[in-house]
Protein backbone atom coordinates (compact mmCIF):
# COMPACT_ATOMS: atom_id res chain seq x y z
CA UNK A 1 0.00 0.00 0.00
CA UNK A 2 1.00 3.66 -0.41
CA UNK A 3 -0.33 7.14 0.20
CA UNK A 4 -1.16 10.01 -2.14
CA UNK A 5 -3.74 12.78 -1.72
CA UNK A 6 -6.04 11.01 -4.17
CA UNK A 7 -5.97 7.77 -2.19
CA UNK A 8 -7.36 9.30 1.01
CA UNK A 9 -10.96 8.48 0.03
CA UNK A 10 -10.14 4.82 -0.47
CA UNK A 11 -8.19 4.69 2.78
CA UNK A 12 -11.15 6.01 4.76
CA UNK A 13 -13.56 3.64 3.00
CA UNK A 14 -11.38 0.59 3.76
CA UNK A 15 -10.89 1.68 7.35
CA UNK A 16 -14.59 2.18 8.00
CA UNK A 17 -15.37 -1.11 6.25
CA UNK A 18 -12.84 -2.88 8.49
CA UNK A 19 -14.40 -1.38 11.61
CA UNK A 20 -17.85 -2.34 10.31
CA UNK A 21 -16.82 -5.96 9.81
CA UNK A 22 -15.46 -6.19 13.34
CA UNK A 23 -18.48 -4.42 14.87
CA UNK A 24 -20.80 -6.69 12.90
CA UNK A 25 -19.06 -9.75 14.30
CA UNK A 26 -19.37 -8.36 17.82
CA UNK A 27 -23.09 -7.61 17.42
CA UNK A 28 -23.82 -11.10 16.09
CA UNK A 29 -21.88 -12.68 18.95
CA UNK A 30 -23.73 -10.53 21.46
CA UNK A 31 -27.12 -11.42 20.00
CA UNK A 32 -26.20 -15.12 19.90
CA UNK A 33 -25.06 -15.10 23.52
CA UNK A 34 -28.09 -13.08 24.61
CA UNK A 35 -30.38 -15.69 23.04
CA UNK A 36 -28.87 -18.58 25.01
CA UNK A 37 -30.80 -19.86 28.05
CA UNK A 38 -29.80 -17.83 31.09
CA UNK A 39 -31.12 -20.26 33.71
CA UNK A 40 -32.19 -23.87 34.21
CA UNK A 41 -35.05 -25.31 36.22
CA UNK A 42 -33.97 -27.64 38.99
CA UNK A 43 -36.31 -29.69 41.18
CA UNK A 44 -35.65 -30.19 44.85
CA UNK A 45 -37.45 -32.45 47.29
CA UNK A 46 -37.69 -31.31 50.86
CA UNK A 47 -39.74 -33.29 53.41
CA UNK A 48 -41.64 -34.87 50.57
CA UNK A 49 -42.39 -31.56 48.89
CA UNK A 50 -41.10 -31.05 45.33
CA UNK A 51 -40.15 -27.50 44.39
CA UNK A 52 -38.79 -26.01 41.17
CA UNK A 53 -35.93 -23.55 41.34
CA UNK A 54 -34.63 -21.38 38.46
CA UNK A 55 -30.88 -21.44 38.84
CA UNK A 56 -28.94 -18.74 36.92
CA UNK A 57 -26.25 -20.10 34.61
CA UNK A 58 -22.72 -18.79 34.44
CA UNK A 59 -21.36 -17.64 31.09
CA UNK A 60 -19.39 -20.86 30.67
CA UNK A 61 -22.45 -22.96 31.46
CA UNK A 62 -24.64 -21.03 29.01
CA UNK A 63 -22.15 -21.67 26.21
CA UNK A 64 -21.33 -25.28 27.13
CA UNK A 65 -24.93 -26.54 27.14
CA UNK A 66 -25.70 -25.02 23.74
CA UNK A 67 -25.75 -27.40 20.77
CA UNK A 68 -25.58 -26.30 17.12
CA UNK A 69 -28.56 -27.01 14.91
CA UNK A 70 -30.12 -25.79 11.67
CA UNK A 71 -31.58 -22.74 13.35
CA UNK A 72 -31.24 -18.99 13.75
CA UNK A 73 -28.84 -19.23 16.68
CA UNK A 74 -26.37 -21.36 14.76
CA UNK A 75 -26.60 -19.00 11.78
CA UNK A 76 -25.78 -16.01 14.01
CA UNK A 77 -22.76 -17.75 15.52
CA UNK A 78 -21.58 -18.91 12.11
CA UNK A 79 -21.91 -15.40 10.69
CA UNK A 80 -19.98 -13.93 13.61
CA UNK A 81 -17.16 -16.46 13.21
CA UNK A 82 -16.95 -15.82 9.47
CA UNK A 83 -16.66 -12.06 10.08
CA UNK A 84 -14.02 -12.59 12.77
CA UNK A 85 -11.97 -14.86 10.53
CA UNK A 86 -12.29 -12.31 7.74
CA UNK A 87 -11.22 -9.48 10.09
CA UNK A 88 -8.01 -11.13 11.22
CA UNK A 89 -7.14 -13.65 8.49
CA UNK A 90 -8.60 -12.31 5.25
CA UNK A 91 -5.15 -11.38 3.95
CA UNK A 92 -4.16 -15.05 3.80
CA UNK A 93 -6.92 -15.66 1.26
CA UNK A 94 -5.74 -12.72 -0.85
CA UNK A 95 -2.06 -13.51 -0.55
CA UNK A 96 -1.69 -17.27 -0.12
CA UNK A 97 -4.61 -18.73 -2.02
CA UNK A 98 -5.12 -16.26 -4.86
CA UNK A 99 -1.50 -15.48 -5.84
CA UNK A 100 1.36 -17.52 -7.23
CA UNK A 101 4.57 -17.85 -5.24
CA UNK A 102 7.79 -16.16 -6.33
CA UNK A 103 10.48 -18.85 -6.76
CA UNK A 104 13.10 -16.30 -5.68
CA UNK A 105 11.19 -15.44 -2.53
CA UNK A 106 10.86 -12.01 -0.97
CA UNK A 107 14.13 -10.05 -0.84
CA UNK A 108 15.50 -8.31 2.21
CA UNK A 109 18.03 -5.54 2.38
CA UNK A 110 21.43 -6.82 3.46
CA UNK A 111 23.09 -5.37 6.56
CA UNK A 112 24.60 -2.07 5.53
CA UNK A 113 26.66 0.81 6.84
CA UNK A 114 24.21 3.13 8.63
CA UNK A 115 24.57 6.87 9.18
CA UNK A 116 22.37 9.35 11.04
CA UNK A 117 22.07 12.93 9.75
CA UNK A 118 20.94 15.66 12.15
CA UNK A 119 18.88 18.31 10.35
CA UNK A 120 18.25 21.92 11.52
CA UNK A 121 14.53 21.22 12.08
CA UNK A 122 15.30 18.38 14.49
CA UNK A 123 14.84 15.55 12.01
CA UNK A 124 17.33 12.73 12.27
CA UNK A 125 17.61 11.11 8.85
CA UNK A 126 18.55 7.45 8.59
CA UNK A 127 20.88 6.53 5.71
CA UNK A 128 22.31 3.18 4.68
CA UNK A 129 25.03 2.46 2.15
CA UNK A 130 25.60 -0.87 0.44
CA UNK A 131 27.23 -2.29 -2.66
CA UNK A 132 30.64 -1.87 -4.20
CA UNK A 133 32.48 1.07 -2.64
CA UNK A 134 34.18 2.08 -5.89
CA UNK A 135 31.09 1.76 -8.10
CA UNK A 136 28.81 4.54 -9.35
CA UNK A 137 26.73 5.95 -6.49
CA UNK A 138 22.94 5.91 -6.86
CA UNK A 139 20.82 7.64 -4.20
CA UNK A 140 17.39 6.01 -3.87
CA UNK A 141 14.35 7.95 -2.60
CA UNK A 142 11.27 5.83 -1.83
CA UNK A 143 7.56 6.58 -2.22
CA UNK A 144 5.31 8.07 0.44
CA UNK A 145 4.18 5.71 3.19
CA UNK A 146 7.11 3.37 2.57
CA UNK A 147 10.75 3.35 3.69
CA UNK A 148 14.17 2.45 2.29
CA UNK A 149 13.19 -1.25 2.27
CA UNK A 150 11.02 -0.53 -0.78
CA UNK A 151 14.21 -0.83 -2.86
CA UNK A 152 14.94 -4.41 -1.76
CA UNK A 153 14.07 -5.88 -5.17
CA UNK A 154 16.35 -3.44 -6.99
CA UNK A 155 19.16 -3.98 -4.48
CA UNK A 156 18.90 -7.75 -5.00
CA UNK A 157 18.83 -7.50 -8.80
CA UNK A 158 21.69 -5.02 -8.97
CA UNK A 159 23.77 -6.87 -6.36
CA UNK A 160 27.15 -5.10 -6.42
CA UNK A 161 26.84 -3.25 -9.74
CA UNK A 162 26.38 0.08 -7.95
CA UNK A 163 27.01 1.75 -4.63
CA UNK A 164 23.54 2.36 -3.24
CA UNK A 165 22.61 5.07 -0.75
CA UNK A 166 19.16 4.41 0.70
CA UNK A 167 17.45 6.81 3.08
CA UNK A 168 14.18 7.06 4.96
CA UNK A 169 12.06 10.14 4.37
CA UNK A 170 11.28 12.16 7.55
CA UNK A 171 8.73 10.48 9.80
CA UNK A 172 9.05 7.14 8.00
CA UNK A 173 11.21 4.10 8.62
CA UNK A 174 13.99 4.95 11.05
CA UNK A 175 14.02 8.70 10.31
CA UNK A 176 12.47 10.85 13.02
CA UNK A 177 9.73 13.43 12.54
CA UNK A 178 10.58 17.12 12.12
CA UNK A 179 9.76 19.06 15.27
CA UNK A 180 8.09 21.81 13.26
CA UNK A 181 5.88 19.25 11.43
CA UNK A 182 7.11 20.49 8.07
CA UNK A 183 6.55 17.78 5.45
CA UNK A 184 6.72 20.03 2.41
CA UNK A 185 8.50 18.81 -0.70
CA UNK A 186 10.92 21.72 -0.30
CA UNK A 187 11.90 20.49 3.17
CA UNK A 188 12.46 16.97 1.84
CA UNK A 189 14.43 18.32 -1.13
CA UNK A 190 16.74 20.08 1.35
CA UNK A 191 17.04 16.75 3.16
CA UNK A 192 17.99 15.10 -0.13
CA UNK A 193 20.70 17.75 -0.56
CA UNK A 194 22.09 16.72 2.83
CA UNK A 195 22.06 13.09 1.70
CA UNK A 196 23.92 14.02 -1.49
CA UNK A 197 26.52 15.89 0.58
CA UNK A 198 26.87 12.94 2.96
CA UNK A 199 27.28 10.41 0.16
CA UNK A 200 30.89 11.45 -0.23
CA UNK A 201 30.86 10.76 -3.94
CA UNK A 202 30.47 12.82 -7.05
CA UNK A 203 28.78 12.88 -9.32
CA UNK A 204 25.81 10.84 -8.10
CA UNK A 205 22.66 9.56 -9.80
CA UNK A 206 19.30 10.33 -8.18
CA UNK A 207 16.47 7.81 -8.44
CA UNK A 208 13.00 8.31 -6.94
CA UNK A 209 9.67 6.50 -6.95
CA UNK A 210 6.38 8.45 -6.82
CA UNK A 211 6.88 11.23 -4.24
CA UNK A 212 10.58 10.37 -4.42
CA UNK A 213 10.59 11.65 -7.99
CA UNK A 214 8.69 14.79 -6.93
CA UNK A 215 11.34 15.44 -4.29
CA UNK A 216 14.06 15.06 -6.93
CA UNK A 217 12.35 17.54 -9.27
CA UNK A 218 11.95 19.97 -6.35
CA UNK A 219 15.66 19.46 -5.60
CA UNK A 220 16.41 20.43 -9.23
CA UNK A 221 14.46 23.68 -8.76
CA UNK A 222 16.21 24.56 -5.50
CA UNK A 223 19.73 23.47 -6.48
CA UNK A 224 20.09 23.90 -10.26
CA UNK A 225 23.80 24.62 -9.86
CA UNK A 226 24.38 21.01 -8.72
CA UNK A 227 23.02 19.48 -11.91
CA UNK A 228 25.97 18.28 -13.96
CA UNK A 229 28.49 18.76 -11.15
CA UNK A 230 27.23 16.82 -8.12
CA UNK A 231 24.32 15.10 -9.89
CA UNK A 232 24.90 13.48 -13.28
CA UNK A 233 21.57 11.77 -14.07
CA UNK A 234 18.00 11.34 -12.85
CA UNK A 235 15.77 8.26 -12.85
CA UNK A 236 12.10 9.06 -12.17
CA UNK A 237 9.79 6.11 -11.51
CA UNK A 238 5.98 6.41 -11.68
CA UNK A 239 6.16 10.07 -10.73
CA UNK A 240 4.29 13.28 -11.50
CA UNK A 241 5.41 16.80 -12.42
CA UNK A 242 2.54 18.53 -10.59
CA UNK A 243 -0.14 18.02 -7.91
CA UNK A 244 -0.75 14.24 -8.13
CA UNK A 245 -4.50 14.77 -7.82
CA UNK A 246 -4.29 16.28 -11.32
CA UNK A 247 -2.44 13.29 -12.83
CA UNK A 248 -4.46 10.47 -11.27
CA UNK A 249 -7.32 8.49 -12.81
CA UNK A 250 -10.61 10.39 -12.38
CA UNK A 251 -8.54 13.54 -11.91
CA UNK A 252 -11.36 15.84 -13.01
CA UNK A 253 -13.65 14.54 -10.28
CA UNK A 254 -10.94 14.35 -7.61
CA UNK A 255 -9.68 17.85 -8.40
CA UNK A 256 -13.20 19.14 -7.83
CA UNK A 257 -13.32 17.24 -4.52
CA UNK A 258 -9.90 18.39 -3.30
CA UNK A 259 -11.05 21.44 -1.34
CA UNK A 260 -14.49 20.32 -0.09
CA UNK A 261 -13.64 16.70 0.74
CA UNK A 262 -10.04 15.48 0.35
CA UNK A 263 -8.39 18.25 2.40
CA UNK A 264 -10.92 18.04 5.28
CA UNK A 265 -10.42 14.26 5.38
CA UNK A 266 -6.66 14.78 5.59
CA UNK A 267 -7.17 17.13 8.55
CA UNK A 268 -9.41 14.52 10.17
CA UNK A 269 -6.73 11.91 9.52
CA UNK A 270 -4.26 14.02 11.51
CA UNK A 271 -6.69 14.56 14.40
CA UNK A 272 -7.78 10.90 14.54
CA UNK A 273 -4.38 9.42 13.76
CA UNK A 274 -4.53 6.65 16.43
CA UNK A 275 -7.97 5.57 15.19
CA UNK A 276 -6.77 5.55 11.58
CA UNK A 277 -3.71 3.54 12.63
CA UNK A 278 -6.01 0.84 14.06
CA UNK A 279 -8.21 0.95 10.96
CA UNK A 280 -5.16 0.57 8.72
CA UNK A 281 -3.99 -2.51 10.60
CA UNK A 282 -7.47 -4.03 10.37
CA UNK A 283 -7.62 -3.38 6.62
CA UNK A 284 -4.21 -5.06 6.29
CA UNK A 285 -5.26 -8.10 8.32
CA UNK A 286 -8.63 -8.53 6.58
CA UNK A 287 -7.09 -8.23 3.12
CA UNK A 288 -8.93 -5.12 1.93
CA UNK A 289 -5.63 -3.22 1.80
CA UNK A 290 -4.21 -5.98 -0.40
CA UNK A 291 -7.17 -5.68 -2.75
CA UNK A 292 -6.59 -1.93 -3.00
CA UNK A 293 -2.89 -2.48 -3.70
CA UNK A 294 -3.82 -4.93 -6.45
CA UNK A 295 -6.22 -2.47 -8.08
CA UNK A 296 -3.83 0.46 -8.09
CA UNK A 297 -0.35 -1.05 -7.80
CA UNK A 298 -0.21 -4.24 -9.84
CA UNK A 299 -1.41 -5.40 -13.25
CA UNK A 300 -2.00 -9.10 -12.58
CA UNK A 301 1.49 -10.61 -12.78
CA UNK A 302 2.44 -9.95 -9.16
CA UNK A 303 3.46 -12.77 -6.85
CA UNK A 304 2.09 -13.27 -3.34
CA UNK A 305 5.40 -12.05 -1.96
CA UNK A 306 5.30 -8.85 -4.01
CA UNK A 307 1.70 -8.09 -3.04
CA UNK A 308 2.31 -8.50 0.69
CA UNK A 309 5.68 -6.76 0.44
CA UNK A 310 4.10 -3.54 -0.85
CA UNK A 311 0.96 -3.69 1.32
CA UNK A 312 2.86 -4.32 4.55
CA UNK A 313 4.38 -0.81 4.52
CA UNK A 314 0.95 0.81 4.84
CA UNK A 315 -0.12 0.03 8.44
CA UNK A 316 3.30 0.79 9.90
CA UNK A 317 3.32 4.44 8.87
CA UNK A 318 1.75 7.15 11.03
CA UNK A 319 -1.53 8.38 9.46
CA UNK A 320 -0.73 11.90 10.69
CA UNK A 321 2.64 11.88 8.94
CA UNK A 322 1.06 10.55 5.75
CA UNK A 323 -1.61 13.26 5.80
CA UNK A 324 0.89 16.08 6.34
CA UNK A 325 3.03 14.80 3.48
CA UNK A 326 -0.05 14.63 1.28
CA UNK A 327 -0.72 18.31 1.96
CA UNK A 328 2.80 18.99 0.71
CA UNK A 329 2.05 17.18 -2.55
CA UNK A 330 -1.10 19.25 -3.11
CA UNK A 331 1.07 22.39 -3.43
CA UNK A 332 3.56 20.81 -5.85
CA UNK A 333 4.20 21.98 -9.42
CA UNK A 334 7.47 21.35 -11.27
CA UNK A 335 6.21 22.28 -14.73
CA UNK A 336 8.60 25.22 -15.12
CA UNK A 337 11.50 23.24 -13.67
CA UNK A 338 11.44 20.50 -16.31
CA UNK A 339 12.92 22.53 -19.16
CA UNK A 340 15.73 23.74 -16.88
CA UNK A 341 17.02 20.20 -16.25
CA UNK A 342 19.97 19.77 -18.61
CA UNK A 343 21.26 16.38 -17.44
CA UNK A 344 20.02 13.01 -18.80
CA UNK A 345 16.69 11.85 -17.36
CA UNK A 346 15.12 8.39 -17.64
CA UNK A 347 11.40 8.21 -16.87
CA UNK A 348 9.66 4.91 -16.05
CA UNK A 349 5.89 4.73 -16.44
CA UNK A 350 3.28 1.99 -16.13
CA UNK A 351 0.91 1.67 -19.06
CA UNK A 352 -2.02 0.99 -16.70
CA UNK A 353 -0.95 3.12 -13.73
CA UNK A 354 -4.08 4.80 -12.26
CA UNK A 355 -2.13 6.62 -9.52
CA UNK A 356 0.21 8.46 -11.88
CA UNK A 357 -1.15 8.30 -15.39
CA UNK A 358 1.49 7.45 -18.02
CA UNK A 359 0.81 10.79 -19.71
CA UNK A 360 2.51 12.48 -16.74
CA UNK A 361 5.72 10.57 -17.37
CA UNK A 362 5.48 11.25 -21.09
CA UNK A 363 5.17 14.98 -20.36
CA UNK A 364 8.34 14.88 -18.24
CA UNK A 365 10.33 12.93 -20.85
CA UNK A 366 9.20 15.23 -23.67
CA UNK A 367 9.92 18.46 -21.78
CA UNK A 368 13.36 17.87 -20.27
CA UNK A 369 16.04 18.46 -22.92
CA UNK A 370 17.68 15.05 -22.46
CA UNK A 371 14.69 12.93 -21.51
CA UNK A 372 13.81 9.40 -22.46
CA UNK A 373 10.98 7.13 -21.40
CA UNK A 374 10.73 3.44 -20.57
CA UNK A 375 7.23 1.97 -20.50
CA UNK A 376 6.65 -1.02 -18.21
CA UNK A 377 3.75 -3.17 -19.41
CA UNK A 378 1.44 -4.40 -18.19
CA UNK A 379 2.13 -2.32 -15.10
CA UNK A 380 0.55 0.02 -12.59
CA UNK A 381 2.13 2.07 -9.78
CA UNK A 382 4.54 -0.65 -8.66
CA UNK A 383 5.71 -1.77 -12.07
CA UNK A 384 9.30 -1.54 -10.86
CA UNK A 385 8.51 -4.40 -8.45
CA UNK A 386 6.13 -6.42 -10.62
CA UNK A 387 8.70 -6.26 -13.46
CA UNK A 388 11.73 -5.94 -11.19
CA UNK A 389 14.21 -7.73 -13.47
CA UNK A 390 13.27 -5.66 -16.53
CA UNK A 391 13.31 -2.47 -14.47
CA UNK A 392 16.70 -3.22 -12.92
CA UNK A 393 18.25 -4.03 -16.30
CA UNK A 394 16.92 -0.92 -18.05
CA UNK A 395 17.91 1.35 -15.16
CA UNK A 396 21.40 -0.20 -15.02
CA UNK A 397 21.95 0.34 -18.74
CA UNK A 398 20.99 4.01 -18.35
CA UNK A 399 23.12 4.53 -15.23
CA UNK A 400 26.15 2.91 -16.88
CA UNK A 401 25.84 4.78 -20.16
CA UNK A 402 28.27 7.61 -20.82
CA UNK A 403 25.66 9.66 -22.68
CA UNK A 404 22.11 9.57 -24.01
From TrEMBL:
<dbReference type="InterPro" id="IPR050266">
    <property type="entry name" value="AB_hydrolase_sf"/>
</dbReference>
<dbReference type="GO" id="GO:0047372">
    <property type="term" value="F:monoacylglycerol lipase activity"/>
</dbReference>
<keyword id="KW-0472">Membrane</keyword>
<dbReference type="InterPro" id="IPR000073">
    <property type="entry name" value="AB_hydrolase_1"/>
</dbReference>
<protein>
    <submittedName>
        <fullName>Pimeloyl-ACP methyl ester carboxylesterase</fullName>
    </submittedName>
</protein>
<feature type="domain" description="AB hydrolase-1">
    <location>
        <begin position="137"/>
        <end position="245"/>
    </location>
</feature>
<dbReference type="GO" id="GO:0046464">
    <property type="term" value="P:acylglycerol catabolic process"/>
</dbReference>
<feature type="transmembrane region" description="Helical">
    <location>
        <begin position="12"/>
        <end position="33"/>
    </location>
</feature>
<feature type="transmembrane region" description="Helical">
    <location>
        <begin position="73"/>
        <end position="94"/>
    </location>
</feature>
<dbReference type="InterPro" id="IPR029058">
    <property type="entry name" value="AB_hydrolase_fold"/>
</dbReference>
<keyword id="KW-1133">Transmembrane helix</keyword>
<dbReference type="GO" id="GO:0016020">
    <property type="term" value="C:membrane"/>
</dbReference>
<dbReference type="Pfam" id="PF00561">
    <property type="entry name" value="Abhydrolase_1"/>
</dbReference>
<keyword id="KW-0812">Transmembrane</keyword>
Amino acid sequence: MFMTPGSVLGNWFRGLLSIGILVGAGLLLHRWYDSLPSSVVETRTTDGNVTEIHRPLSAIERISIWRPDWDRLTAMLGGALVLLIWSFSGRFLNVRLLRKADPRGQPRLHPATAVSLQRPDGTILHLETQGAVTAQTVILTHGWGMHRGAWAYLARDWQNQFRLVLWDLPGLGKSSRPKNRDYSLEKMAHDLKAVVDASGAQPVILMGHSIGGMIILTFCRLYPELLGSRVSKLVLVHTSFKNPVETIALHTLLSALQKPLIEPLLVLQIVLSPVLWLMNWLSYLNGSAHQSTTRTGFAGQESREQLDFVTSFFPRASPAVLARGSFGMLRYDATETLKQITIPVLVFTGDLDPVTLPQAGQKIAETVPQGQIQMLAPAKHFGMIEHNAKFAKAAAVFCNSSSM
